[in-house]
Amino acid sequence: MELQQLRYLVAVAETGNFTRAAERCFVTQPSLSQQIINLETELGHKLFHRLGRRAVPTETGEMFIGRARRILFEVETAAKEIQDSPSQERRITVGATPSIMPYWLPPLILEATGRFPGLVINTLENFHAPLLNAVVDGEVDLALISMPVDDHRVAAEVLFREPLLLVVAEGHPLASKPEVTAHDLADETFVLLGHSSSLASQIQRFCGDHDFEPRSGHHCAQIRTVKSLVAVGAGISILPKSARTSVDPVSLVYRKLSGRAPYREIALVRHLQRYQSHGANQFITLLRENVRALDAGKRETGGKAGK
Q1: CATH architecture of the domain formed by 3-83
Q2: Is the CATH code 3.40.190.10 the one for domain 90-159+265-300?
Q3: Comparing C-alpha atoms, which of 67, 56, 46, 76 is closest to residue 14?
Q4: Distance CA 215, CA 204 (A)
Q5: Tens digit of pLDDT for each residue in 43-63?
Q6: pLDDT tens-digit series, residues 153-168
Q7: Which controlled-vocabulary keywords does the entry list (predicted)?
Q8: 166: which strand partners?
Q9: C-alpha distances in angstroms, 22 versus 64, 72, 231?
Q10: CA pair distance 226, 191, nearest whole angstrom
Q11: Does domain 162-263 have CATH number 3.20.20.70?
Q12: If DSSP states are collapsed to H, E and C, what string results for the chain?
């Protein structure tokens, strides 16, 4: 039994198809299929039902695939631990959602370049659920996502809480209204990130808590697109305070909602059983320092959001 056979096995289980599994593993489909047959012969049990183009694990297959995942995880973790020497290049992959990545990761990478010359930070931008899966599968070392995080295999450290602000175009009636409440938004058209976005889910919950369903006119993949559409009056949106930048369209107006104003909690997520490398520790140290500096700045200014 070889580790490569276990990798092929897991790939077939995750893709549900021998051809797609072969593409993922960069081998030919006949070669991958033969390795699975060899593994089944060695074990004396079928691991997959071949249903046309679909490959569905048998009961024995389900049990063995779980073991295979744990074996591969342990091998990769052991290799990473051995290779992780302060005298060598330290490479980590950090994931973040589209509403976090452009505002937090670039300055952190820039600072890390000066402080930790051997640290190489790769990034992966994706929505909440895929990033959580990437942490569990070992595709990323760490991820910055919003709470809640419901998976017993990971640890989630809440770093900070930030308000979610109403964003409208300069000429919109809500831009100059003395006080804006959630109920003022009930008849508005929203510009939102895609359905997979945790920010979109938070907005849905906030509106639901105030007994209305947000009327969505636009679904976007990037915060920049949301801002551009709001700026031309295509609708309103709700964005994190950290998404407000000096390069925003000049016609954008940010308003703090009164009453039960929405907010989000950003967490650092890592696998509970994954070896935490020296490079990962350096990044976490840097991240925590930046969060503390942000908190100190809020205290100095009285924590006011402003319009």
Answers
A1: Orthogonal Bundle (1.10)
A2: yes
A3: 56
A4: 10
A5: 999 999 998 889 999 999 999
A6: 999 999 999 999 999 9
A7: DNA-binding, Transcription, Transcription regulation
A8: 238, 255
A9: 20, 18, 46
A10: 6
A11: no
A12: CCHHHHHHHHHHHHHCCHHHHHHHHCCCHHHHHHHHHHHHHHHCCCCEEEECCEEEECHHHHHHHHHHHHHHHHHHHHHHHHHCCCCCCEEEEEEECCCCHHHHHHHHHHHHHHHCCCEEEEEEECCHHHHHHHHHHCCCCEEEEECCCCCCCEEEEEEEEEEEEEEEECCCHHHHCCCCCHHHHCCCEEEEECCCCHHHHHHHHHHHHCCCCCEEEEEECCHHHHHHHHHCCCCEEEEEHHHCCCCCCCCEEEECCCCCCCEEEEEEEEECCCCCCHHHHHHHHHHHHHHHHHHHHHHHCCCCCCC
Query: Per-domain residue ranges for the chain?
Result: 3-83, 90-159+265-300, 162-263
Residue 192 tokens, joined: 């939102």
**Structure-block tokens of residue 97:** 């959602």
**pLDDT over 50 (residue 305):** no
The whole-angstrom separation of Cα 121 and Cα 108 is 10
Is there a common fold for 3-83 and 90-159+265-300? no
For 183, the token pair is 């109920």
How far is the C-alpha of 160 from the C-alpha of 266, rounded, in Å? 6
- Whether the CB-CB separation of 130 and 82 falls below 8 Å is answered with no
Residues 6+ apart with CB under 8 A from 116: 90, 279, 282, 286
Q: CA angle 192-194-200, nearest 5°?
A: 55
Global model pTM greater than 0.70:
no
Q: State the CB neighbour count (10 A cutoff) for residue 71.
A: 14
Residue 271 pLDDT greater than 60, yes or no: yes
The answer to whether the beta carbons of residues 271 and 287 sit under 8 Å apart is no
Place of tokens 């007994």: 211
